[in-house]
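Thread: quick sanity check before group meeting

JM: Hey all, I'm pulling together slides for Thursday and realized we never actually wrote out the predicted structure for the chain we discussed last week. Dropping the sequence here so it's in one place. If anyone has concerns about the input, flag it before I start.
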Amino acid sequence: MADDPNVQNQDSPQAGDQNQDGQQPGKTFTQAELDAIIADRLKREREKYKDYADLKKAADEYQRLRESQMSDQEKLQAKLAEYERQLLEKEREAAEARLESLKLRVLDEMGLPKAWAVRIFGTTEEEIRHDAEELKRLLGTPGRPVGSGTNPPGGGNVVPDLETLGKMSMAEYIEYRKKLGG
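JM (edit): ok, ran it. Output follows.
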């Protein structure tokens, strides 16, 4: 082992100056040294932004001065722009409400649970109706009520109502269909 060229002798003058890759090792710091470095860095950063409150106050004063120097027409134009922005927001909200109402109406007409409204896509009545019909087709029609004809009470498969089907996750529905053999 003494003849191994990869092993450095601890007594050699180069021991500790280089690591195994021939690179200089990084300096290690004590906790006190790290605390001092961090405190110094924080102090420098705080110095950079110490006048932030003064700058903010000056900016607010400038804004008030600018507003006071506006003509009546400019003030009215600024108010008009704000009202137009609010109007656009209200129109967007109204359109969303109309779309939700349309979805609920279509689901009600088709006898589907209203909880499915979030699963229906489209922006026109035709698109919404088509998507609802597709969803109804994919879920299939429920069987006959329990206790009628060849579906005696207490035996066979109990078919959940559409409301229950609407609350099922896709995985639950697939498992349900497998149990039915479909």
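AS: nice. The CA atoms of residues 70 and 76 lie 10 Å apart. Residues 72-109 form the longest helix (38 residues).
JM: adding both to the slides.
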